[in-house]
Design goal:
homodimer; mainly alpha; Arc Repressor Mutant, subunit A; 2 domains; 10 helices; globular; DNA-binding; DNA binding (chains A, B)
DNA sequence: GTAATTCCCAACGCTAGCGTTGGAAAGGAA
DNA sequence: TTCCTTTCCAACGCTAGCGTTGGGAATTAC
């Protein structure tokens, strides 16, 4: 049979995303990633260098995805509400990224990989909010960076403490998710209203 | 020397809070807890039954603390803003609880201990918001449970993804924390405004 | 005083996971 | 063909952590 280096690496990455998101850096074992990917453990070390490096790689890939898939484009309050809704949707549809970031926040905090790159990425979002504020469409009650972060909080907290969300707003269901999403959109818009 | 059962148990609990909050259920080892507490590992098993049970116990204790220390009392928008500020402060001053809850959300999610008790606890908070809504002091834009949760989101997201907070709003400092707190208070009040 | 109970620890067996290694199989270069 | 490189894996040594046990020391009950 022919080699399939590319395929092997991809299978490892796929398995790693799932495992890391599910169990976190500590709970994840290289053995299991290899088993799920259907390859030998040694391949992981050879291609990616080890657990830490693989985690960093996985997170970088997922961040690139979200940067591509959830652009910020609205410059007024309604646009920010819409953006919050899309962030909420993304968290729902791709829980991996949110989980990875929260594992990262808990396990590492200081000294995260690619910090400079990621800061720049957020810089664009803040600039968009700032532009909205200059045009008078968005409130000047908050500094742009703070408002940006608070909007992300509204969209993200649900998945950060799902057990609390369940206890406060009731069990998850299609209906409940619709309620939550509507609340997030409305809340972000209200926060951003001039 | 005389026995000090109570003291031994307390030392274990103290060490367990610190270790679990820092490293999470997976990263924490019973060995280490025992070492930090200065007692033998066997004591942990004898008194608390094991890692899982100890984690549940630690979380229950911390939840009892916050329920005692951060009452909700305001019935109007400003009161909710004030409450959000106090929640933010609590997260700052006692990062353990927030971290424990987030570890729990990541590691277990479904089937958390004491769910009924905790749901009841949140029920009081929701009732307070609801009362504010009935009196017309708090907006009816959101259902009470949703508004309650969103307010907690504003206060809690900072510590959930500290690395993101840092990248968006700049490095932590006394000044920056004051800015953040002010944003949280203002945002919660604005959300709740009629 | 002594028997029973409780508290405590050192040490054990066991498993799981880490990262590595020696070598086999597949492909390419000459 | 022959030699070299790359991909892959089975198996290894090692460590850390889990939960337990057997026994010793302090305390209490009788």
């Amino acid at each position: 049979m022919a080699w399939d280096t590319e395929g092997t690496q991809q299978k490892i990455l796929d398995a790693a995303v799932a495992e890391f998101a599910q169990r976190g850096p500590d709970g994840t074992t290289v053995e299991r990633i290899a088993r799920v990917a259907g390859v030998n453990k040694e391949r992981v070390y050879n291609y990616f260098g080890g657990k830490q490096e693989l985690f960093a790689r996985v997170l970088r890939d997922e961040l690139a995805r979200v940067a591509r898939d959830v652009p910020i484009d609205g410059l007024d309050a309604a646009g920010l509400g819409d953006y919050a809704g899309r962030v909420y949707d993304y968290h729902r549809e791709h829980p991996e990224l949110s989980r990875l970031m929260r594992w990262e926040g808990l396990a590492f905090d200081s000294e995260v990989p690619d910090e400079e790159l990621r800061r720049e990425h957020y810089g664009y979002k803040i600039a968009a909010v700032d532009a909205g504020q200059r045009s008078g469409e968005v409130t000047a009650d908050f500094e742009a960076d703070q408002l940006m972060f608070l909007v992300l909080a509204l969209a993200g907290w649900w998945s950060a403490v799902p057990q609390v969300a369940r206890m406060i707003t009731g069990p998850e269901s299609a209906d409940e998710h619709a309620r939550r999403r509507a609340s997030v959109v409305r809340a972000a818009a209200k926060l951003a209203a001039a």
